[in-house]
Structures are given as C-alpha cells and as structure tokens.
Write a structure and sequence with these properties.
alpha/beta, five-stranded mixed beta sheet, 11 helices
Length: 362
C-alpha cells in the first residue's frame, strides 16, 4: 500500500494534556470507575480503546486527556477470529452502558492494510487478510479504527507519556519479542507497505540463535524477555553456583525460569539475575545504536514487560548505546527513557487514534 495511504491517517491535532504521571503511580487499571464531574470537552470526546493480546483482550474508556475512566477485560478466545470479534463487541457494549462513546479504536499485533482496516497477518490469531474493521462495524453499528498495537502504544506515549513534544520518537517494546513504532512529525510512520517497525528482526548476529520469523540472529533473540529467560535457564542448567537463587525460586525446575522471574530477582538484589539483565541491556543498546544510525530520533522510549527492570536495564543500555553510536562524540545523541503509561498504553493510543480520525485528523 502506498505511503500516502498511511500519512494522512495518523496526523495529530494535539490538545493540552495534564502533567504526566509515571504509570506505576496511576490508579490500578482494573480498579478505576466512572468519574463524576468530567469537563465538557472530556465528556464529549470519550472513546473506547481495545488492546488484543495473546492471552487477554483489554478495553478501556479514554478521555481527550488520555485518562482511563473504566476498564473491562476478557480472555482471548484462542485462535477463533469470529469469537475475538464477538468478545470485542461485548466489551464495547459493556463500557457503553455508563458512557456516551464517540469512537472505537482497535490495536492488534500484525501487519495492517490501514486504508481498508484489514489485518494482513497476525501472530496471535489465525488472521490472514481479515477484514476486521468491516466485521466490527457490522457488529457494533458504529465507526471503528483498526491500528497496529505497537503503533497505538507509541502514539499514546507521544501524546500523553514519555515522548510528549518529541518530533522524532521511536518506541521499542520488550516482551516475548521486540516490537516497535515511529512517530515522525505528528504521524505514525508505517513505511511504504505498512509494515515498518519490525525492529526486533534486524539481524545482529549472522548465523546466531534461530528466530521464530525463520531467520537467525535477530535482535529479539538477544534483547527480549524470552532471551533473558533462555540465558538464565542455560546458566542454571550448567549448575553454576551463581544460579543458586534462580534454582531455589523454581524448586530446581530449570524450565520454569522465565524472563519475568529473572527481572523480579534482579530487582530484589540477586547478583546473577542483575548480571543477566545487564547483558540484555548491552544488546539493547547495540540495537538502538543501529536504529539511531538509520532513523536519527530525538528520543527512544522503552516499554514492555522487561522495562520493569528500570535503571538496571537502562544503565547498561545507555552505556552500550553511547559506545556503539555512529559518529559518537561529534553528533547529538538521542535520549533513552522508560515508557510512562505502562500496560495501558496500547488501548489509550488506539482510543485516541480513533478520536483523531473521527474529527478528521486522520
């Protein structure tokens, strides 16, 4: 699909937003309830954002300031696309009972034909050339916007979070793999064919670890939550004395060691886990330096589950980035910050993008 089909879609009309708060200081998402006394602009622009994940579908009512007013979730119903669409319709209906909803935005993993609202390919669901927008508009009897989930999260961070006022923003999401998105001059940049942002599949180590994409040596095989878990399991399987705390945490079951566990132990002070997170950070910094050479952003925002390691991850990342940056010492270097909106970013961004499109901003 031509680039022109993307550029007009995601142009912003930025509104004033309240001061940003770190995501960990926000009211727990599931505990939020409808708020009384909303201002007229906030009440007028309410949108529902939907984030379709591999295990759950999360929905939230989002106002024009990026605040989540209510939330509902359902388990993702396996690989059945029709069931997923039914669940989305249920969530929108549930949230619409207490709010007057102006628009609905859907964030889903995969490659998108944005002009037609079609999911060309999704790794979480058996969606191949799925006309998601058309199907949902029939079910909901209202306008629906469909976007890539990483784009939605990046948009939320640019509008309301760590990337506010940054004209060249790159977001990198560290989870099972590595996702990403770019905001350039107030628009989501999807590339010539709509599939930009697959940062995790740049090849850093030729003939390295096999990746699910079919190639070897992809960045996400060295700097993701899965990579952290794999490295920790290898250390524990070698019966290294430094892995004692890792093994104790899983009662000796090496295969039960995950990236999330290692992150938790690292935050608790376990030295071996901290060293493992440090290694991941070094790989992360190297990949960011490659992206900086190609894209020259002003800010990188790092999100996803692995970002909960905070400075334990960010400090080695920044060191490796500075050491590997092309032209280091003779050029400005991008900032590297943690995402501010946490796991709600995807649905906040999907809701706000739907609102932008409804008002003619995209």
């Amino acid at each position: 699909m031509a680039a022109q089909q993307h550029r007009g879609l995601f142009r912003s009309r930025r509104a004033d937003t309240p001061p940003m708060r770190p995501w960990h200081s926000r009211t727990p998402f599931a505990a939020q309830r409808p708020r009384a006394g909303l201002s007229y602009p906030a009440r007028r622009g309410l949108a529902v954002g939907i984030d379709i994940g591999g295990t759950k579908v999360a929905a939230g009512v989002v106002d024009v300031y990026g605040r989540t007013l209510a939330e509902a979730t359902r388990a993702t119903p396996g690989q059945d696309a029709r069931e997923v669409e039914r669940v989305i319709a249920e969530l929108v209906g549930e949230l619409s009972r207490d709010f007057r909803i102006r628009s609905v935005g859907i964030g889903a993993a995969g490659w998108m034909d944005l002009a037609n609202g079609t999911v060309l390919f999704s790794p979480h669901l058996a969606w191949r050339n799925e006309p998601l927008r058309r199907n949902l508009e029939v079910l909901l009897r209202r306008r629906v916007t469909v976007v890539n989930d990483a784009d939605a999260a990046a948009w939320a961070e640019w509008r309301f979070g760590a990337g506010r006022d940054e004209p060249r923003l790159v977001c990198v999401t560290l989870g099972t793999g590595i996702g990403g998105a770019m905001i350039l001059d107030g628009r989501v940049e999807r590339g010539r064919y709509g599939v930009a942002g697959e940062f995790g599949h740049q090849i850093l180590v030729p003939q390295g670890h096999r990746c699910e994409c079919g190639n070897r040596g992809c960045w996400e095989q060295y700097a993701s939550g899965n990579a952290l878990g794999r490295e920790a399991r290898e250390l524990a399987a070698a019966n290294s004395p430094v892995a004692r705390n890792l093994l104790d945490a899983v009662d000796g079951d090496v295969q039960a060691i995950t990236g999330a566990l290692v992150t938790s132990l690292a935050m608790g002070g376990d030295q071996a886990s901290r060293e493992l997170v440090d290694d991941i950070g070094q790989w992360l910094g190297l990949g960011l330096a490659n992206l900086a050479a190609a894209l020259d952003p002003g800010t990188f925002v790092i999100g996803g589950g692995l970002s909960s390691a905070g400075q334990l991850l960010l400090e080695p990342t920044r060191r490796a980035f500075a050491r590997n940056l092309t032209g280091r010492g003779f050029r400005p270097a991008a900032r590297i910050d943690l995402a501010a909106l946490g796991p709600a970013a995807g649905l906040i961004g999907a809701a706000d993008l739907s609102r932008q499109m409804m008002r003619g901003g995209g």
